[in-house]
Each structure stands twice: as structure tokens, then as C-alpha cells.
Design brief:
The complex is a heterodimer of chains A (157) and B (278). Chain A has four helices and eight strands, in the order ααββββββββαα. Chain A is α+β, with helices and mostly antiparallel strands and 157 residues long. Chain A has one domain: Jelly Rolls (Sandwich). In chain A, α3 (111-120) crosses α4 (122-147). Chain A is globular. Chain B has 278 residues and is an alpha/beta fold. In chain B, 23% of the residues lie in helices and 31% in strands. Chain B has a seven-stranded mixed β-sheet, sandwiched between helices. The chains are: A alpha+beta (157), B alpha/beta (278). The interface between A and B is medium-sized, with 27 and 37 residues. β5 of chain A pairs antiparallel with β10 of chain B, so a sheet runs across the interface.
Chain lengths: 157, 278
């Protein structure tokens, strides 16, 4: 059983929480839990209610979208990455499947718990969003580059 | 074989010794001078390859600079000349002018970490630098190879990448833009690997080659991690014709890419890349 102090230390080691004020970290730790997923196990499914987000401690996760010819992987995430921001949108619904491709250990956060604390404490709300936004911007930027099909046929010669 | 300026415009006949299909549209040729002798070059340089009766194109050398007995070119068939080149068979002759251009600064990087970032067929011009780095492995800190391809079926030099990854002194990370669940590796853009690569940005030399947009984003990611723009090198591609800066076809701002490049520092390249339609 992981104690709150251990959880706090584990969260502090993740890039998402680097430099976070102790008071604010203590608030988010109260919504956190330690989880593990075996290779092949789904962490979340498209269309499901987005009531969590995850900090990946170790392992690898594939973001997939189902198609008639099978799952298409759109991105992989690994140690130090953050998984899941749909809990911030309305309605909070997952837009992809996330599958552990190897044994994966994460810290999960109860979105309802965190949302309540963010509503009650705007400083916490601002801090959490301030940490999510650059990650979201980076992912959107990366997705746009992927869409460009950069490695397709180049100049004719 | 070293050419002087006078005969740099005259193609030298080389015999095709081997042809290897790398990918559905990409092939590697091993060439030897018909007159015999060696061919010396530096990693990052290119040759003008002449398919007789069809035309001439600039192609980077993809072989080992430490191996002067054979000239190796890896080419993607995308136009009339390169498609005709892909039809040539062992025993046929091809014209070679070169080597031309400024090389990758592999020796200047001695003492620092060396990060190679390649996209698609851009791994071919970087392979000589990787060979040179491996031959001088003890002179570098970390050696990191980051490679992005379209799909798992489009990974160039796959066996070599696997072999390099199997060494204990090279970090090799591969990512693809699209994959099915049969692929167990990374999916996403190669710039994501830059953020994860284990190197010391303050003491890193980075060599980047691939489509121009990919190089732009990869160089930006390296600089964002703290690598100096003067230590990030990109290999530019423009309409090279003469190879020696006479004809002006490859003029790029104040530079002729064939003579002042194709390798430029990001410090030199980034202001020019910001100029539209240059």
C-alpha cells in the first residue's frame, strides 16, 4: 500500500509536478492513486467518461483509434509523459483508446476530486491548467506535423 | 580519386557492382571507377550522378568514408532521372562527378555528445557520419541516433539500425508517423524523440537531415533543449547542377548550396529559411 508521503514523492519526480508549490502539491496528492497496467491492458477506451488523467512513471502507452481494419496507433507515450486531458473538456469523454504496450506504472488522478478542488481554489486551478496547456499545445503541434506526411515523395528529379 | 576544378565538370564512368532494393522506391548502388583506383570523400558530401542520355542529379554519398574502395549511393526514385537510375543493372555504367560540398563536422564534434536526427531517406546522407562516429567511438560522449519514418515498412537501413541499437554504446530511437498494433515501437514525430534523448545539450553537436520542414522542427526542438544553434547542423537541398558554384542554380541567399553547403549550421540556415520562397 502506497502511503500519501510516498505518493507525494513519486509525483514530485514526474516532470508535470517539477517546481510545484508544496501546498498545491498536497492538494493534488489527495486525488491521486498508484496504478499498474499489464501489457495489452486498456487504460481508457474511446467514448468512455473521462474521469481521470495519468502521469506515466514507467512503461509505454499507445494511443489508438479503432478502424474496421484494426487499431491505428496515433502516438505512443512513455516515462515522464502525461496521459489524458479530455477530463478538462465538456462533455468529458475519451477521444482515443489508450493501451499499455508493456507493463506500465502510472499515478492516476480522480478528475472529479481535482475539479472540485480547482473550483474551490483558483490558484490550484490556474496552476494545473498552466501545466496542462504547454503539453496540449505540444501534442497539437506534433499532430499537425504528423498530418503533413513529411516523408512522402519529395521533389521530382 | 580527387578531382581538380578543371575536370570537375566531366563525369567519370563508374561500374555498378551491386544494386540493393532498400524500400519499394529506394535503392542502394555500389560503384567502382572503371579506370580503377580509390574514391575518397567526407561524410555529408554528394556526387552528381549522370544516367547517360537521361540526365544528372545530385545524390548524397551513403557509404563508409573509411572505405575508399567502393562508392555507395542510396537514392529514392521520385523523378525521371532517379527512376531511370533505378532501372540500371549490375555491370552497367553511370557517370560520377564529385565529391562536392561541405561535410558534416564529425571531427569538430570530438569531445562532445553527438546526436544524429534523421527523417525518411535523410538517414542516407547521415550514415557516413554514423560510420565515422562509430570508427571513433571513444572520442565522443554519448552517441544518439534518432530516426523518424512514415511507417514501419519505410524504415531505411533497418538491419543496421537494429545492429547499432544492439551495441551498448549507442542510443538508437526510432519512431514512425503511422502504425498498426503490430508495431511495438514509438509512434509520433521525430521531434518528440529529441525531447526524450539522453544527451547533454550544453555539450552536444547535432546533425539533422530529412525533409526541410522536419529539419526545421527538429532543429527548433534541439535549440529548445539547450543545444546552441551554432552546434546544430542541417543538410540543405536545392537545385544543384554544376556542383562547384559556377551555374548559380542552387543559390540560396548569399550561399551556393553545392559549394558553401549542403551542410550549414542552424545559425546560418534559420534566418534564410524564414525568407519565403527563397
Amino acid at each position: 500500500m502506497v502511503q500519501i508521503d510516498d505518493l507525494s514523492r513519486i509525483i514530485d519526480e514526474h516532470p508535470f509536478a517539477h517546481g510545484m508549490d508544496d501546498t498545491l502539491r498536497a492538494l493534488i496528492v489527495g486525488c491521486a492513486a498508484n496504478e499498474r497496467y499489464d501489457a495489452g491492458q486498456y487504460i481508457l477506451r474511446e467514448g468512455g467518461r473521462a474521469d481521470k488523467f495519468f502521469l506515466i512513471r514507467a512503461g509505454a502507452v499507445a494511443l489508438e483509434i479503432a478502424s474496421p481494419s484494426g487499431a491505428i496507433m496515433v502516438e505512443t507515450l512513455s516515462d515522464g509523459d502525461l496521459l489524458g486531458w479530455s477530463w478538462l473538456s465538456d462533455p468529458p469523454v475519451w477521444t482515443f483508446d489508450a493501451r499499455a504496450t508493456q507493463l506500465t506504472r502510472v499515478i492516476s488522478f480522480d478528475a472529479n476530486c481535482l475539479r472540485r478542488k480547482m473550483d474551490a481554489d483558483p490558484a490550484l486551478g490556474y496552476e494545473v491548467l498552466r501545466r496542462f496547456l504547454p503539453i496540449m499545445a505540444h501534442r497539437i503541434h506534433a499532430a499537425r506535423i504528423q498530418m503533413l506526411d513529411l516523408y512522402g515523395p519529395g521533389p521530382r528529379r | 580519386m580527387k578531382m581538380d576544378v578543371q575536370d570537375s565538370m566531366v563525369p567519370v564512368p563508374f561500374r555498378i557492382e551491386k544494386v540493393r532494393r532498400e524500400l519499394s522506391d529506394t535503392f542502394t548502388m555500389e560503384l567502382k571507377p572503371e579506370a580503377g583506383g580509390a574514391f575518397r570523400f567526407q561524410a555529408g558530401q554528394f556526387n552528381m550522378l549522370y544516367v547517360f542520355g537521361v540526365g544528372e542529379v545530385p545524390i548524397s554519398i551513403s557509404g563508409d568514408p573509411g572505405e575508399s574502395g567502393v562508392l555507395v549511393h542510396t537514392t529514392r526514385a521520385v523523378g525521371a532521372v532517379t527512376r531511370a537510375m533505378g532501372q540500371l543493372e549490375v555491370g552497367e555504367t553511370i557517370g560520377v562527378r564529385g565529391p562536392f560540398g561541405k561535410p558534416w563536422p564529425v571531427e569538430q564534434a570530438f569531445g562532445s555528445d553527438l546526436v544524429i536526427v534523421a527523417g525518411g531517406v535523410g538517414l542516407a546522407p547521415l550514415r557516413p557520419a554514423i560510420y565515422q562516429a562509430l570508427a571513433n567511438r571513444d572520442k565522443f560522449g554519448k552517441l544518439v541516433v534518432l530516426y523518424g519514418a512514415r511507417t514501419a515498412d519505410d524504415i531505411l537501413f533497418r538491419k543496421e539500425l537494429e545492429r547499432w541499437r544492439g551495441r551498448f554504446d549507442v542510443e538508437v530511437k526510432v519512431t514512425v508517423d503511422r502504425a498498426t498494433d503490430r508495431w511495438a515501437g514509438n509512434v509520433g514525430v521525430v521531434t518528440n524523440l529529441v525531447a526524450r534523448g539522453g544527451f547533454d545539450p550544453m555539450h552536444t553537436t547535432a546533425l539533422v537531415c530529412g525533409p526541410e520542414i522536419m529539419m526545421r522542427f527538429a532543429a527548433q526542438a534541439l535549440v529548445k533543449r539547450g543545444v546552441s544553434p551554432a552546434s546544430v547542423y542541417v543538410s540543405m537541398e536545392r537545385n544543384m547542377k554544376c556542383g562547384v558554384g559556377f551555374c548559380g542554380h542552387c543559390q540560396w541567399g548569399p550561399h551556393f548550396v553545392c559549394r558553401n553547403g549542403p551542410v550549414f549550421t542552424w545559425e546560418e540556415a534559420s534566418p534564410l529559411l524564414a525568407v519565403r520562397e527563397l
